[in-house]
């Protein structure tokens, strides 16, 4: 680091960066060494070059120091003449706009490559134009309505058929035969499934006379 | 002379209808909570004792009454103590084996639990279907990736998450804000939420579809509503037991804490759970049994249904506790990870150096090596405890819609599990709704006046429509508070009174011996001494003691309070009910309880007037 006297690690234009490589990659974690640092400086310089008026930022303008075991370090971007550090706001904007590229270079994400003091823009949730639940609701609603209509209509048709049936047999006696008699609290229909017309207790005409 | 009473196509349909009605949401969300609160494995002891002493006898009594009287609850109880004089005998219900003369000199009706049952069932069906509406809502939302309750929505400038969601959790936020859109207190009613209103409408349409044709359609539907929940529970059992951390939950649940056996609350809650879980006193069981062939062996069915109901509770709690164990372990490990991250960042330790196993050692080392910095960080370090995670006992809608969804969102293929779970809740809820509506409809369709003017489809339709419109109250912003009122007060005390009156009516007014001989003539089996002992002595005493306990509990508690959701803090706060809410609670309890003495008084007056009329005629 060349400009120790102008570069206070905890100055207002410096940013602390924290990486959690082992958390993100597990066994595929790479070790943090000076080459990785070089890549980091390159990415920061790349981000700064996208800012208007800063297209001439070089890798050497990015200074990194206080690397710990964690891995965490501080960095700051100096101007081309190397006599002062660039304002934090510019650096912040630049990093925010290129966050995805920086994350991608290190196989990390916003949680494992943290820039403290630079909040990340969260991805907006994908909202479909029509909420999915209304579609499913509509489908089930229509099915249920159709089923209800079918059942009601078939019930009406059944009732109409039943009321037409007995009127064709226009005996007044038959009207009594259609109702089920109750004997001692038990309906007689279990005795005869056809509707209780025939009382099996009595002999029929044929059997009254003993056959020859 | 009456039209043939519709019958179940086979006895299996009847058993399934009873199971479908009895096995409901209470088995899934109340029993595991009670098990957890009252000593885990040792809660099974009072539970099984109460099942044998209270559940089976009372269930057998209701089924026998329904099968014997062959009418819905109003007609059945009117038959037990028939009217005198001008009112005439009730339709179709003549005591067989007894000539007309003896019947008319029997005691007049002073006890009318039938109408009270219908009133309680009416209240129940009004508020119960909103649970099905919520289940539909969650079911429809389960078809998204990611599940909507697994992530917090972003705040307005997209730099962070919504504030309420941050303070609470994403599942709580989805329940309280997106589903209920709950207001801060019961006074702020807000408007009807149209999304919930639509779901409620759909729920009532589905119920109407199932009850439309009476036992013909109900008999087929109960095959699904009885069996499908078991399929889903078995699938969940297999998945639950293979989840990481499930054994923690199961060990916690089944280690018996024997000292809880001495706690009277454990016994009272066991009795209450058996009582309400079987659905006694609503009139639904009487209605179902009235569609039976008189020769059906209802003793066998009563034992089967009560055993299946209780084993389902235990089975569901095994599933619930494996899910609890998974959730608790997951939260415990997240908590540990947060502490590890905090320490790693504060002391710039190497990433991955701190693990759960060496955490305590390293904490000790850091405390001694860097005492100043450590004491700065110390307040932020939370004490992670698996025990405290497991000990958070939740019941009711909180369990299903908050705790379970939290566990589900962490499972792989969470959409599938979510769909299965809410489908099961729907089946359970609709099965219970069939019983509730049967309790209301059977007396209506039995009554000559109404059924001669309207076909049964229209009666069912009207009942569903009225309930749906009233149910819209529960879709308002303060709706969940009203739901809690109905849930806690509409059914508890009145039911105890109704069932007490039922037992006393059968044993002492109708006569236990008469009932015994009727049953023997009907089914061909003698009544075991055990049932007689239970009906005449033990069960009424048990119910009286429960009743006294609840009454004294309500009186001693003073003003009633409720839990309100505070959006600014992201948690529940306790508030007092306003005066009008207390009045409505009183009205709820009174309206069903008072039916019994009021109708009794009414018939007594009518009888006195009739007796006053007859002398001039003679």
Automatic annotation (TrEMBL), chain A:
PROSITE patterns per record: COLLECTRIN_LIKE (PS52010)
The way it spans or sits in the membrane comes to: Single-pass type I membrane protein
Q: Does the keyword Phosphoprotein apply?
A: yes
Where is this gene product found?
Cell membrane
Entry keywords, A to Z: Cell membrane, Glycoprotein, Membrane, Phosphoprotein, Signal, Transmembrane, Transmembrane helix
Which residues does the UniProt record annotate as the domain Collectrin-like?
11-212
Positions of transmembrane segments: 130-153
The primary location reported for this protein is membrane
Q: Check the record and name the Pfam families matching this protein.
A: Collectrin
Question: In its keyword annotation, does this UniProt entry include Heme?
Answer: no
For this entry, the protein name equals Collectrin-like domain-containing protein
> What species does this protein belong to?
Felis catus
Q: What is the lineage of its organism?
A: Eukaryota, Metazoa, Chordata, Craniata, Vertebrata
What gene is this protein a product of?
CLTRN
Automatic annotation (TrEMBL), chain B:
Q: Where's it found, cell-wise?
A: Membrane
Record key words, sorted: Glycoprotein, Membrane, Symport, Transmembrane, Transmembrane helix, Transport
InterPro entries this protein is in?
Na/ntran_symport, Neutral_aa_SLC6, SNS_sf
Q: Which SUPFAM superfamilies does the UniProt record give?
A: SNF-like
Q: What membrane topology does this protein have?
A: Multi-pass membrane protein
Question: PROSITE patterns, per this entry?
Answer: NA_NEUROTRAN_SYMP_1, NA_NEUROTRAN_SYMP_2, NA_NEUROTRAN_SYMP_3, PROKAR_LIPOPROTEIN
Segments crossing the lipid bilayer: 12-31, 43-61, 115-140, 194-212, 221-246, 266-291, 303-324, 419-441, 462-483, 489-512, 533-557, 577-601
The organism's superkingdom is given as: Eukaryota
Q: What is its main location?
A: membrane
Report any Pfam family annotated for this entry. SNF
Q: Which family does it belong to?
A: Belongs to the sodium:neurotransmitter symporter (SNF) (TC 2.A.22) family.
Name assigned to this protein = Transporter
Q: Per UniProt, what is the name of the gene that codes for the protein in this document?
A: SLC6A20
